[in-house]
Write a structure and sequence with these properties.
- 31% of the residues lie in helices and 24% in strands.
- It is of the alpha/beta class and 384 residues long.
- It folds into 2 domains: 130 residues, NAD(P)-binding Rossmann-like Domain (Rossmann fold, 3-Layer(aba) Sandwich); 236 residues, 2-Layer Sandwich (Dihydrodipicolinate Reductase, domain 2).
- The N and C termini lie far apart (72 Å).
Amino acid sequence: MKQNVKKKHSLKIGILGNGFMGRMRAHAYLTVAHIMDDLPFVPELVAVSGLDEKSLEAFTGDFNIGFYTKNWADIVDDESIDIINICLPENLHAEPAIRALEQGKHVFCEKALALDAASALEMTRAAEQSGKINMCGMNYRFLPAVQLARDLIHNGDLGNIYTMHACYFQESGHDPYRPVEEVLYAYGENALGSARGLGSHVIDTCRFLLGEMSVLNACFKTFVPERKTKSGDLYRVEVDDFASMTVEFETGAIGMLSTSKVAAGRKNWFRFEINGSKGSLEFNLQDLNTLRVFLPDRSPSQLSGFTDISVTEKAHPLMSPWWPPAHNLGWEHSHINEIHHFLYSIANNQDVGPSGATFHDGYRAVELVEQAESSSGFIKHPAL
């Protein structure tokens, strides 16, 4: 005999942008509905916007969405929609985000929050004035190993923190003959460069782990300043291929941060190491279930050295809804955990911070890159 089960109401979600990240977010919302059981509502995907009719039709079919449009305003202005999730190119983030917040909707926006700090600050002020839940997509905060690293630091297990080395390297631009359209963050109105594109994750993770920072000095470099387009035209690249900055945290620790899109062989190499007075830890995104920890006071001298911790136990951060120990999570699970945190914050009417990145955190990531650019003397050259 079937038991009567109380049906949860739905929270209606509109996704702006149906590319790679739009698909990732749609997948995350659906997975949250099936895996997490602590929400008083069911996230329901009801609308998506994009530019290509064929891909929009495929998207709506894949995720069982009833409505699509080529005009994002159709979704933002729909009074029945509760959440706007922005997966558009960065130069198109500000207008729909501010409009949605002014209409009383909760907003999740991908990183980088905006192309420039002025736009990001405008978005942040709109979010603060609206009183609605706002979140910037810094998903690496929601990897269990990264949260365990934060716990160890904040609990004092590493002692006084001295230094942090962090890098995010990819290889899409190492071949100077590769068409510029295929080089990450290099082409068009939305060209971010490595510092704004990859660096937003590096800066945000450093702030998440060690607190606020200021830029001491920086170096930006464009190794391939001219590339060919797919049609054979010459294109002048106006953004950086590589950036390096030295920062000081408010605790007095020093950080060395670098980003590159010309690192041959590096597919998605995001790594950091933190050294303190009582120990060290190391993380690599390409081995994301492992945190390497060295705590010499807790190890016999004959076994001294880094220990690989498989961060997959139920007692580890964020792991309670997931699989048995050593049944590893993947990159997508950081997004699922992040979306769950966003929805949980809405359900409990609480700010997403400090675990999640607010619009203010997104703004700081952009602002610090601009400070680094200014420190380095890097000058953007207009495209040919």
